[in-house]
Each structure stands twice: as C-alpha cells, then as structure tokens.
Amino acid sequence: MAAAITLAAPAYADHPGTAHHKVVAVEDITFKPGPATLPPGVQFAVLHGSPSEEGPFVMRLKFPAGYAIPPHTHPEEEHVTVLSGGFGIGTGEQFDAAKAPILKPGSFVQISTGMAHFVRIEDETLVQINAIGPFGITYVDPADDPRGTN
After folding, report:
1. Where exactly are the structural domains of the chain?
2. What percent of the chain has pLDDT over 90?
3. Where is the ChrR-like cupin domain positioned along the sequence (predicted)?
4. How confident is the model at residue 10 (pLDDT cuts 50, 70, 90)?
5. pLDDT per residue over 60-100, tens digit each?
6. Torsion on CA atoms 92, 97, 99, 105, rounded to nearest 10
7. Can you give the pLDDT at residue 2?
C-alpha cells in the first residue's frame, strides 16, 4: 500500500507583498545614470523595492568596458548574479586585478556584510544585485568616494 505524502505549504498570506506578484518585462527596464555612490559611467535600474529604504530590493547595474569600483564595504549582505559580460570581484582593502578573476554569465557571488571588496570589468557587463536596504557603500579610502565626502 502506497503511503500518501503531504507537503505543508508555508503560510504566506500574512506576509506583506505576497498578495500579488510583480512582472518586469525586459523591454520595460529603463536604466538611469548613477547612482552617485559609484564612479561615473555605470547605469542602474531598480526592479523591486528601494536600496534607500528598509526591506528587500532588486537592482541591475550596467557597467561599461574598463570600469572599476575601488575597495569598499556594504552595511548589508549583497548577492550578485552575472547576467551578461564578465564580472571581476576580489576581496581585500587593496585593489589587485590579479585577485579578481572574471566570472562568466550565470555566476553568483555572495558578499558578506562589512567585507572589503572591489570590482573590475573588462567588457560591457550586466549584473543583478539582491540585498536588503537601506543599502550603502563605504570606500576603504575616502578619497575614492565619488560623492566627494572625504
């Protein structure tokens, strides 16, 4: 006699935001210059939530060829998925391109809260970032901060 298997579905009815879903078609994504927290040249589009508000958010960043982000940290964990191009990331307080291998599309990176890291881009690249806001960036060397708050 076969035993019936019952899977208990989690009760999401009380969780805000689960009463509906959100669809963002690729043709509806509009990239804007900025954000001001990153060196000039990058473009971004927020797909869900807001990096400046409390709660989860999803954002895409489009980097031009030859782009770099100096060593920095974030106040929350960061999840990065490479969608196209190649994403080079290394850890530490000194930028060292040799320690930032280029990851292919489909690759994933989890960056722990407060971990110093840096980014290098060789070819135009698109990544998706999932994190919890409010999100911020603190440069290891304040002189690297494009906001000029050194």
Report:
1. 32-140
2. 81
3. 21-93
4. very low
5. 999 999 999 999 999 999 999 999 999 999 999 999 999 99
6. 110
7. 46
